[in-house]
Amino acid sequence: MSILVGFGPDTRTGSGLRLGVAIARSLGEDLVLCCVVHDSFGSPSLRDFSGVDDDWRREITGLAREALAEARSRLPEDLEVQTVMRVGRSVPQILEREARDRGCRMLVVGSADGVVGRIGLGSTSDRLVHSSRVPVALAPRGFDPGEGTLSRIVLAVDPSDADAALVPGVVRVLEALGTSLTVVTFAVRSGTRSAMTAFRESGFYAQWRRDAVRTQRTILDEVRAACPEVEADAGSVVEGDRWSAAVGGLEWRSGDLLVIGSSSHAGLARVFLGSTAARILRHAPVPVLVLPRGRGKAARREKAR
């Protein structure tokens, strides 16, 4: 299997490339660099018979070849690397199809312009995290692990049995990477003191927290049963008065990979970010892997009721 890193001829950041290298090194697998040229002139209604579009194609294709050559030159010589250029109207579709056709373990992309150290979704990455049938890994802007590899998976879950459906995908990642696992739930409540006080005094928060801990234990039990050699622990509930405070409240480490799952309302074969996952992704200070949701034991039990 391999890791596919997708980018365009005009990509200015190497964060996705560096994350791809870190993942490939951690897995001991080869890397596929895929540069996609967006060709809107492929539509008959937009075809230019004057030949201008042909000149454009030649120029942009040349830029793509240069981008691939530059990307390859920045990679370690001991890493097995393949390069491929594709042309088409839908960049996300082409990247996902390339990853599926090659049987790639995951598809890696960088961040659009935004805050350094955070993930910024552009048109391509946003489409991928809402439609890909292949796990999608996203690198924060400016991400640079140096010579490091991935050492811990942080799985973010809701206090719901449905998130146990992520276990098969997480197990595959853990078996491949050989990392430790921490399961965590992020809690965000109203920033007003009176609202937080009322929420706590109502008793609802205590039950919500118990549900979160129970879900974490259920997931850990299933992971340990599948991977008894994996070091796994519950990171409990990390709360804050806003998402940035809650996500930032976890003690993040160098070598962390945050894993979130697709929405429970999405089709089982595809990724689709729910609102909670999207907020966590936006504030994550580490790379994020978005997994399509599978049918975990708890999810099957829930469906059978």
TrEMBL record:
Domain of life: Bacteria
Pfam families listed in its UniProt record: Usp (PF00582)
Alphabetical list of SUPFAM superfamilies matching this protein: Adenine nucleotide alpha hydrolases-like (SSF52402)
InterPro entries documented for this protein: Rossmann-like_a/b/a_fold, Universal_stress_UspA, UspA
Residues annotated as domain UspA: 2-139, 151-292
Family recorded in the similarity comment: Belongs to the universal stress protein A family.
This protein's name: Universal stress protein
Organism: Brachybacterium kimchii
